Amino acid sequence: MKQVTEQAEDFVDTRSSGTEIREFEDLRSDSSQIRMFDTWEDYGLKEDLLKGIYSIGFETPSFIQKAAIQPIIDGRDIRAQAQSGTGKTGAFAVAALQICDMSQDVTQILVLASTREIAAQNAARFEDLGCFMGARVALLSGGSPIAADKVALEKKPHIVVGTPGRVEHMININELSMDNIKLFVIDEADEMLKAGFQEQVKSIFRRITNKDEVQIAMFSATYDEEELRVSEEILINPVIIDLRYNDQTLKGIRQYFIDLRKEPPFRKGREDYLLPKLVTLYDIFRKQRLGQSIVFINSKEDARIVYDWLIRHEWECELISAELTQAERERTLNRFRGGTGRCLISSGLLSRGIDIQNLSVVFCLDVPSFERKSTYIHRIGRSGRYGRKGIAINIVYEHELKNLKAIERFYNTTIKELPADFSFQ
Questions:
Q1: Is-contact 119 113, C-beta < 8 A?
Q2: Residues 234-244 pLDDT 10s
Q3: 299 labelled binding-site residue
Q4: pLDDT for 112-137, tens place per residue?
Q5: Confidence band of 33 (pLDDT split at 50, 70, 90)
Q6: Does 90 count as an annotated binding residue?
Q7: CB 72 within 8 A of CB 234
Q8: Is 249 annotated as a binding residue?
Q9: Which domains does the chain have, with CATH numbers?
């Protein structure tokens, strides 16, 4: 049978329960098909939107963009799953701007994200793509003054991007109207449909005036059974896009571990426990020629220990964690994106959604629990963005290897022991 490829005018099948797009799998025949295109011009996009697309360097659609844009333009619900860094944000932003009527001074597109950082990044992408269209975009998220959000909404934005708590609050105080929403986007949907956000998302959805007609688009790199169940409650005859490349393996990212064997037998505190990992990390930094990297560790307390230790050893780095204010986190991200600091220490805020150009190496100083296994995929997905090559290094103790190997088996991926003569070049 015919397979989905990245060539122009490929087709995918539609089933009674929805349309399913899977790369590298045979397609079953059916009566209706969704067409994918190889160039932006083939979509019949607005001229000013095309100008915005080319102005930010989007030369051709990525595979997820080919698969997702047309169904949204055609009015379909979608649930999309694709590896990190493949252009999911661009997919829903382009489609949303195409269907948005800029002559109407009402909010038509609502995008929810789990953190302010991701929401801000999404809002910036809408602004960049819609810069020639007169698109008005409002960012609503915790950490910013309510008064500023009211001012933003008074400008009658076409598109609102925000975090669930702040969006729900602005709806409750009658500052954000749900009367004209035509597209509801849930980004990082696996996180948004978990218990922490699920009720807020459902509450916001219930407030949409025409919820029986509104389109819903869900995007994520991973989904668990619970999130899939919840999605089925609100999606109608959706297009299911599954582009995970062999059960979640992140294409282009080489994964390794360094086994430090036993953890320190005698220790006075967390720094003593982490010391062998810190020494190993520092040794790599000194001996290898690396660009910018991110170092992930689970807790904000441990992130502070790693940061302080590296600073004491005169290694230039930045720290981002929940202990910082929102303004401090934004300044840190902007400095790092601007080239300040060789590495960024993160307690997990950046494991989802954040795009940092020219990042090729991710270090993980611990292993997420198996229950939070998707965190591993999101962590290492910070490298190898948009088809570039990336490297992920897990620095672990012997007792952590069991969990790492369980994640390896679950995602049908390969995590090798780092060779002694390995070079990052």
A1: yes
A2: 899 999 988 76
A3: no
A4: 998 888 899 899 999 999 999 999 99
A5: low
A6: no
A7: no
A8: no
A9: 11-243 (3.40.50.300), 253-417 (3.40.50.300)
d(CA 202, CA 193): 9
**Please, where are the H alpha helices in 46-173?**
47-55, 63-73, 88-99, 116-129, 146-154, 164-172
User: 70-124 pLDDT, tens per residue?
Assistant: 999 999 999 998 776 678 899 999 999 999 999 999 999 999 998 888 899 899 9
Looking at residue 43, the DSSP 8-state letter turns out to be G
Flag whether 332 is marked binding: no
Q: Is 82 annotated as ligand-binding?
A: yes
The total number of residues shown for the chain amounts to 425
Q: Which of 132, 122, 113 is nearest to 54 (CA)?
A: 132
End-to-end CA distance of the chain: 41
Question: What is the reported pTM?
Answer: 0.65
What digits encode the pLDDT tens for the residues 312-338? 999 989 998 888 887 888 888 888 888
Unique residue bearing structure tokens 């611990």: 366
Residue 312 · residue 337 · CB < 8 Å: no
DSSP 292-317: EEEEE-S-HHHHHHHHHHHHHTT--E
Residue 386 DSSP label: G
* Residue 86 annotated as binding site: yes
Q: Under DSSP, is residue 112 helix (H, G, I), strand (E, B) or coil? A: strand
148 is in an annotated binding site: no
- Helix (H) / strand (E) element for 279: namely helix 270-287
Q: What's the rounded Cα separation, in Å, for the pair 274 and 265?
A: 12
Q: Give yes or no for a contact between 96 and 103, defined as CB atoms under 8 angstroms apart.
A: no
DSSP per position, 160-215: EEE-HHHHHHHHHTT-S--TT--EEEESSHHHHTSHHHHHHHHHHHHH-TTTTT-E
31 is in an annotated binding site: no
